[in-house]
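Handout, section B. The chain below has 395 residues.
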Amino acid sequence: MKVIIIGAGIGGTSAAIALRRLGHDVVVYDRMRENKPVGAALSLWSNGVKVLNWLGLGDEVRALGGDMSDMAYLDGHTGEVLCDFSLDPVTAQTGQRPYPVARADLQALLMRTVGDDRVRLGMRMTALHDDGERVTVTFADGSTDVADMVIGADGARSLTRGYVQPDGADEIVREYSGYTNFNGLIPADAAIGDLDAWTTYVAEGKRAAVMPVAGDRFYFWFDVPQPAGLPYERSDGTEPLQAAFAGWAPGVQRLIAAIDPATSLNRVEIWDITPFHTWAKGRVAILGDAAHNTAPDIGQGACSALEDTFALGIAVATNTVSVEDTLRRYERSRTERAGELVLRARRRGDETHAYDAEATAAWYASLRGSDGAGIIRGIVGNIEGSPINLGVGAL
């Protein structure tokens, strides 16, 4: 079977690997001209790592992953440790160690595994046409390609998403989550946080955090609640961070000072999409952010896309009635769980960003002296419903 995948991100390339290993002819198209992922790094929790293990990439992903053994929360103003605990229970309860990874490193690995001759960059899709037997994809340069199945992994502003919605359905729109995220990579520095820990400074509904990734680096990120659409130029560099985190703890000031805006600083307004349940139409389906654009507050965005890959691979391997039937079964196996993760991330964002000041104050109070048991329950709860855990869910 010929499969076209639109989008060479984590979801699109992982799906391409899965379908190629099932013996299908797969081509990936992406509008980007080189590997320049949005965001510096990502959290690969146990469910995401398990999918990559299933794809045969366990050793390579382990080499890219940071040694994140502990989690710590610090008071943003004073630097006082509120709690510090081991993440070993996550590994023990889920059967797999999580890894933070640099996004560009993971995406490069996935693209290499798909094959250079199978990934075609600089190609922007403009139209789809399904005649019931084949799907024709048209690109901005006027060229076309034809396949038996098309998977739209074309991101938060997906064109494919609109195509698969029922005629007359309301337009699906992205919704602002209320905050801007700044992220990037810096050399690891124990004066900011322990070298083997995910360290987060919290106060005023804001967060400043570092996580270890391979190469003796920290992935850093800041959350700043603010209106959408505020002006920002790359030449502004870290000025918004200096203003938002003025007077914060020495570790936060050291983190801001370590950032080289010319090398690694991304500014991203955080938006998501209210869950919806139509992911497939005929021989076309969506995957990843196109299907469940999620705020990063529970670290499950990339993992959820990888779960899509697993579900799609299983559906293609085991359902043989028709392409249309296979994609409907893929859709039914994924929309409920993926949508629930979107809503969990929203609820978590409401709690951490002081949209309800009393709720955020209560969360800060709960962190002080905590043994981490409640936080571990939340992390494991996001993982344990994954289809990659055999015997769980619709698959």
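Note. The CA atoms of residues 294 and 301 lie 6 Å apart. Compare this with the example in section A.
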